[in-house]
Amino acid sequence: MSSSPLLADLIEALRCLPGVGAKTAQRMAFHVLERDRAGARRLAERLALAVERIGNCTRCRTFSEDALCALCANDARDRSLLCVVETPVDQLAIEQATGYRGHYFVLLGRLSPLDGMGPKELGLDLLAQRLAEGEVHELIIATNPTVEGEATAHMLAQLAHAASVRASRLAHGVPLGGELEFIDRGTLAHAFGGRQTL
Amino acid sequence: MSSSPLLADLIEALRCLPGVGAKTAQRMAFHVLERDRAGARRLAERLALAVERIGNCTRCRTFSEDALCALCANDARDRSLLCVVETPVDQLAIEQATGYRGHYFVLLGRLSPLDGMGPKELGLDLLAQRLAEGEVHELIIATNPTVEGEATAHMLAQLAHAASVRASRLAHGVPLGGELEFIDRGTLAHAFGGRQTL
Questions:
Q1: Global ipTM
Q2: Cβ distance A110 to A145 under 8 Å?
Q3: Does B157 lie in the same domain as B102?
Q4: Same domain as A156, residue A90
Q5: What are phi and psi for residue A83, nearest 5 degrees?
Q6: Would A34 be classed as within a structural domain?
Q7: Contact list, B115 vs chain A (CB under 8 Å)
């Protein structure tokens, strides 16, 4: 039995965060109450604001509080390159790891008819329309290398083909620091087949 | 570069939680925005409410939104037993692990003159006053077995002695499931010295 119902409520609510179980939620609640009330207040405000105001960009479908996200609105970026990713996290990963200066299109999912994710849910009509505008010269397909991601990639390639836009796919292969001995067969087969001239 | 300033703000604010670094904060923010906006809204409300309303119980100093916490207000609990702990988390741990039905007193710290934690900061005047009331027959000292915790325990024992109240201390010894081989010398010495007749 907790000494405070509000505290018990807070501990329960913290569990909506991924990877946070009962013990961690408890530790988090006590920590902010004991040591960082200002931080907790700020978090509460920003969480409420984000949930209320962040929707999706009307052009690339990523998270954005404006109709057009900061990336789409940025004129300095190359409009001839369009990189298609499954989620905003994937977009952020590419943005942080590579020097890519083109635009993005976020599917917010992957092709998965059983989960009700079809071409319409992935916004492919919006994408087709974008390709038809004629500005995009290369469609970089960066869906995940899973069965569903590959099926999605296949459909995207067809879409690019129909619009006479060149389609490319992220290279599969041995990850940096990986050892051949421990790499799964599929990856190794891909890496072998896609070997490059030195 | 993130596509949304509000999202970047949220990620930064999430880092006030213990054990949450840049990557985890990112994952949390994307998770709630994609999959659990209702949970996030609830968390924001409860966090704000908890920070604003939770203070300390005037009797035992634990976290409470009322002047008297639920435990102190509970007449069914044994008023002759008083367990002293360092923090509300320790109180909760004892409450969840043991069948203890007495009351608590929370120091909100431990004796540590260098950090400005003296008898006054630990509320020892409040505790002395409570012991003087005559209801308490046993003071159970459950401070941590650290140098500072032991010093605190020593002072608490003196306080109890002055009020002619019996003082006891949690037993130190081999933890359940522990192996003698891997236990530190101090603990083993304690366990040996405090051996019990079978």
A1: 0.81
A2: no
A3: yes
A4: yes
A5: -105, 125
A6: yes
A7: none
